[in-house]
Input
Amino acid sequence: MDKEKLGYIAGILDGEGSLRYWQIWSQRHHGSFGFEMTFYNTNRLMLKRIQRWIGAGSIIEKKQPNKAIQSRKVCYMLQIRERDVIYSFLSQAHHLLTEKKERAEQILGILATLYAAQEYCQAATQG
Output
């Protein structure tokens, strides 16, 4: 991705987006993590552009919870949960973030650890 697009997306994420992760505790996914990068805006075309540039994600129309808010513009959310995509983007863009920089670095650290453990397990089973 070129620097202009990277900076544009990083600015939108920093101002109108969110980064989060959570640990999954179930019998099937014991100790797994979920990751999410989201962008919120009333401009659906802008979110479609970001989705195209990143190459992943789903755009969801956010329902307004009460009638007072329903008179406002429709809000959309671009939701990205593909961990490889999140890792790739944050690896390139974390230095451009201000508000979300600390969270981005936390997520990069967790993903780097998970990828290293995955490589170790693959090497152990092959060797």
Q: What stands out?
A: Residues 3-126 form a domain with the Endonuclease I-creI fold (CATH 3.10.28.10). DSSP finds five helices and four strands in the chain. The CA atoms of residues 46 and 52 lie 10 Å apart.
